[in-house]
Specification:
The chain contains 19 helices and 14 strands. By secondary structure, the protein is an alpha/beta fold. The protein has three domains: about 200 residues, Rossmann fold (3-Layer(aba) Sandwich), CATH 3.40.50; about 90 residues, N-(1-d-carboxylethyl)-l-norvaline Dehydrogenase, domain 2, CATH 1.10.1040; about 130 residues, Rossmann fold. The protein starts with a strand and ends with a strand. The chain binds nicotinamide-adenine-dinucleotide (NAD). Nicotinamide-adenine-dinucleotide binds next to helix 1 and helix 5.
């Protein structure tokens, strides 16, 4: 199929590359000129495992093109997939202006039957708002042209976006006509299987399924962090509780690790958009308010566990909100480093991918020193803080720390290290739970 993807961010670029991998002809269009010029030269503006190779391959094979001309891109495709951003407004209401603008572009450009697929995360009712915006644009042009619009939320995770897109757990398509069902089946033919079904719903249900999924994941994480707090007062190791819970099929394996809270561009944004949508309709979403409150508190939980951080030399390993991404959006590292600055600590920071994004987000400060290697961050440190579960941090040994650190305190915000081994080697080890 001939496809245009609108938006070349995490979702758009991954979708475009994966659609090309599945033998579709794809144009990825964005309003950001600099980004598109970079992409034409295969410069991926963020770190996502496997994406650079896929983009390079399909640029060379000419299955994938990049463009700033939304109109031409739309006119040259049958299927338009909208992956533009939906950031939170100041009051956390979802800002759907970019999605409406993309719909208007679609209405101003279409010259024959086309289908607009909305992948951006949007509140219920957005599909209808976009349909009206498109109709208005077509009316202004005084032409007769048919279109359909489908809500097809995205569930990929940063850090495993390519894998998640090529092998999704399920595909949700909110549709209200038969023609679109056939197109969606064709589009996703080689992505789906019996185990990875397409679930057809109404557009509004599809919109809510995305919010409900993110709410559930955030709830699971805040739940396990609350259990971790309970373990701390009971003198019990949370890892044993996690093990005992995760083999229960009703509970599930994922999103059940205690830590310094969740971050990223989606969970907080989406649960707050849901709370806000509820508030506008006089629905008090108590559970999600508590989930968010627990998470914000959790980011600084290590300061409750250990009181001796004032004026210390602190090595912070891990700045991105999770491993395998360079994104520091809503990451615990930002809150932790700000608090350390208030305590007049001297902070050396290291991350395998997120260092420059962190320095941009945190701003320059004389107490923050970026480091290129873990050993540089650890040199003369009194305290080590681990904030992201990068697999390479798991390999850190007591001998390595003794060689570089001055002090013997470990604050393990992801319960990554083998606490027994470090305690035995003379370290004061404090984890979560
Ligand atoms: N990042 C994730 O992990 C993830 C996962 C699932 C769903 N989502 C949702 O997908 C959507 C996109 O997220 P993202 O992380 O890719 O965002 P992003 O910020 O990485 O990228 C958004 C892109 O949209 C472009 N854009 C804005 N307005 C445009 C317009 N009118 N026409 C064309 N391009 C336009 C921007 O220039 C930018 O490149 C959001 O609604 C988000 O909530 C994100």
């Amino acid at each position: 199929m001939k496809i245009t993807v609108l938006g070349a961010g995490y979702v758009g670029l991954t979708t475009a590359a994966c659609m090309a991998e599945k033998a579709h002809k794809v144009i990825c269009a964005d309003i950001d000129r600099q980004k598109i010029n970079g992409l034409k030269k295969n410069n991926i503006p963020f770190f996502e495992p496997g994406l650079d190779k896929l983009v390079k391959k399909h640029l060379q094979l000419k299955n994938l093109q990049f463009s700033n001309s939304l109109k031409t891109a739309i006119q040259n495709s049958d299927v338009i997939i909208c992956c533009v951003w939906t950031p939170p407004k100041k009051n956390f209401k979802a800002d759907i202006m970019a999605v409406i603008n993309a719909a208007k572009d679609f209405g101003q450009s279409i010259n024959s039957y086309k289908i607009l697929i909305i992948k951006s995360t949007v509140p219920p009712g957005t599909n209808k708002i976009c349909a009206l915006a498109i109709q208005e644009e077509i009316k202004k042009r005084n032409i007769k042209v048919k279109f359909d619009i489908v809500s097809n939320p995205e569930f990929l995770r940063q850090g495993s976006a390519v894998r998640d897109t090529l092998k999704p757990d399920r595909i949700v398509a909110g549709i209200n006509n038969k023609k679109s069902v056939a197109i969606i089946k064709g589009l996703y033919k080689s992505f789906q299987s019996k185990k990875r079904p397409i679930i057809f719903t109404t557009p509004e249900s599809a919109e809510i399924i995305k919010y409900a999924a993110n709410s559930y994941l955030a709830m699971k994480l805040s739940f396990i962090n609350e259990i971790a707090g309970f373990c701390e007062i009971a003198g019990v190791n949370i890892k044993e509780i996690e093990k005992g819970l995760k083999f229960d099929k009703r509970i599930g394996l994922d999103y059940l690790h205690a830590g310094v809270g969740y971050g990223g561009g989606c969970l907080k944004k989406d649960i707050n958009a849901m709370i806000h949508f509820g508030k506008e309709k006089k629905y008090n979403f108590k559970l999600l308010k508590v989930v968010d409150e627990i998470n914000e508190k959790q980011k600084l939980h290590l300061f409750d566990r250990y009181k001796g951080l004032a004026d210390k030399n602190v090595a912070v390993l891990g700045l991105s909100f999770k491993p395998d991404t360079d994104s520091v959006k809503e990451a615990a590292s930002i809150a932790v480093v700000n608090k350390l600055i208030k305590l007049k600590a001297k902070i050396k920071v290291y991350d395998p991918a997120g260092l420059s994004a962190f320095l941009k987000a945190a701003g320059k400060h004389k107490n923050i020193m970026p480091c290129k290697k873990p050993a540089d961050a650890l040199r003369n440190a009194d305290v080590l803080m681990i904030l992201t579960a990068w697999p390479q941090f798991k390999k850190i040994t007591p001998e390595f720390l003794k060689k570089h650190m001055k002090g013997r305190v470990i604050l393990d915000g992801r319960n990554l290290l083998n606490q027994k081994a470090f305690k035995k080697a003379g370290f004061e080890y404090i984890g979560i739970g």
